[in-house]
Amino acid sequence: MPFMRVRDIESCYEIHGAGPRLLKIWGTGGDLRRPATDFDRQLTEHFTVLAFDQRGMGRSGKPEHDYTMADYADDAAGLMTALGWERAAVLGYSFGGMVAQELALRHPTRISRLVLMSTSAGGAGGMSYPMHELAELVDEARVKRFLELADKRRTPQWQAEHAALWQSLVSDGLAALRQGDQDPASRAGAARQMAARRHHDTWERLPQLAMPVAVFAGRFDAIAPPDVQYRLAGQIAGAGYREFDGGHLFFVQDPTATRVVLDSLLG
């Protein structure tokens, strides 16, 4: 994967696919070294997709100072500039959706269309679950609690009735968690990302957005609850809103979601 100097960091990025330009901004702990999903592959069938490791994560730079949501937004805009991308559709998921909001507010002319998934506005609009609390748990407890929050149908009764599937989900989650670097710089970068997330608040500024916006939620998501996402959409004139049959990862759980997301990005 190539690197590009952006502001004060070396940014690790990748570009795949063909078609209209799409900037993909992913969630907490995102790392380009993780395997692509079917959803990722379908994006590249329709778009030229630019994805990157955000500061503090993956193989991008990990400066030893506090990060802000403005830093994350300006990093994304800076990478677009460095690569000659004047304008693109933007897809933001979870923490990446928070960054995408900040990007749209700070650099509105760079975004042709904005799609937000499983995210929140913060402030008076409501926050997503305080993920920093999970970081205090040991690995297995952390993964199990995340899986329960990601889809609130996964109750203790559900876990007992679907024991083999539950154990597979936990095992996959542990493998993904441990795949990332465990060195002190990576742990510090992850903590700084969490700290920036706690200060996310675009609520009062969202009415400034004038580009087409769509907000998509999973109806069983307890990380970014649907009512919080519904309020986010309602704060933006003309924004669309739709819920799908799934949780925080509804776009891999509900087979109808991908086509809707693609159509929203294509206009």
Element-level helix/strand string: EEEHEHEHEHHHHEHEHH
CATH homologous superfamily designation: Alpha/Beta hydrolase fold, catalytic domain
Helices, by number, come to 10
The CATH class assignment is: Alpha Beta
Mean pLDDT: 95
**Major beta sheet, specifics?**
8 strands, mixed
Whole-number count of domains: 1
**CATH topology annotation:** Rossmann fold
Helix content: 40-55%
Structural class comes to: alpha/beta
Low-confidence stretches: none
Could you provide a short overview of the structure?
By secondary structure, this protein is α/β, with parallel strands linked by helices. It is 40% helix and 18% strand. The mean pLDDT is 95.
Describe the structure.
- The protein is of the alpha/beta class.
- The chain contains 10 helices and 8 strands.
- The chain has helices at 38-46, 69-82, 95-106, 139-150, 156-161, 163-179, 184-198, 226-234, 250-253, 257-266, and strands at residues 3-6, 9-17, 21-25, 48-52, 88-93, 111-117, 213-218, 240-244.
- Strands 1-2-4-3-5-6-7-8 form an 8-stranded mixed sheet, with helices on both faces.
- The two termini are 30 Å apart.
